[in-house]
Design brief:
This protein is an alpha/beta fold. Helix content is 41%, strand content 11%. The protein has one domain: Rossmann fold, CATH 3.40.50.
Length: 266
């Protein structure tokens, strides 16, 4: 899902106004320049971003995890077991019930597409980085045919290096294969942090750049490993798809995310 669609270090505030918008500047255009041509433009803004981070943490709206962390879609014998592992997104922060969460919606839409019975459960906690998922959740993960992994926003906040993130994903995949040989692992992707209503510019641009680097690292791992599928978000997300905290996905955001994830599984 804490800063997440996730961290312990950075909590969210509802709809902080972007400072650049107040000046009539297009933040999307500035973000494109920063990402492609001049990331050094953010360096003089470091003191401002520090103040923004403190304000975000202080004024965060803290939402509870979703109710009901397991379920079944369909009748009869279970053909697929889907287990979600990860951060506050997997914990269902942003929705009231796990049937609305990314894990629950992925199972429901997979059942609708395949007509097969799917048993699912979600094991997620706010603030987890990918390394935490590997060391704290994977060793006790139940056997499954499909593991849905959500992590990365907390890594972007903490400054995890892309190389370390790639190594963590490889280590996680190895541990899950020990639990369930032949399993399919889906990395749910790192959403574009520049789209988060709760993050003001330029902090959003800075974290977005970090997140993109981690997403590229995950993509490189997936290219080399057939058992790992990697989901890539579009460059922008709709503000209406976020929960009231402006950070986690709400019901419509989870539903749209799940639709994209199912395309990797069918």
């Amino acid at each position: 899902m804490s800063i997440s669609w996730q961290s312990r270090k950075l909590h969210v505030i509802p709809f902080v106004p972007h400072s650049c918008k107040s000046r009539g500047t297009n933040p999307s255009r500035l973000n494109a320049v920063i990402h492609k041509d001049a990331p050094w433009l953010l360096l003089p803004l470091a003191p401002l971003m520090l103040l923004q981070a403190i304000a975000v943490k202080r004024r965060a709206q803290r939402l509870p995890p979703a109710r009901g962390c397991e379920g079944r879609c369909g009748e009869g014998s279970v053909l697929w077991r889907l287990v979600g592992l990860g951060d506050s997104t997997i914990a269902g922060i942003g929705v009231t019930d796990h049937t609305q969460s990314v894990v629950g919606r992925t199972a429901a839409q997979m059942h609708a597409a395949r007509g097969e019975t799917i048993e699912w459960q979600a094991r997620g906690f706010s603030g987890l980085k990918l390394q935490d998922v590997c060391t704290r959740l994977a060793p006790s993960a139940p056997p499954a045919e499909i593991y849905l992994v959500s992590a990365g926003v907390n890594d972007a906040v903490a400054g995890t290096a892309p190389e370390a993130f790639a190594n963590d994903l490889q280590a996680l995949a190895a541990r899950l294969r020990e639990r369930a040989p032949g399993c399919r692992i889906v990395f749910a992707g790192i959403p574009p942090l520049a789209s988060f209503p709760a993050l003001p510019w330029p902090l959003s641009a800075y974290l977005d750049r970090r997140g993109r680097a981690l997403q590229a690292a995950a993509r490189s791992v997936a290219v080399r490993a057939n058992e790992i599928a990697c989901h890539d978000f579009p460059a922008r997300l709709e503000a209406g798809d976020f929960a009231s905290d402006g950070f986690h996905p709400g019901p419509s955001g989870c539903d749209a995310w799940a639709r994209e994830l199912v395309t990797l599984l069918t």
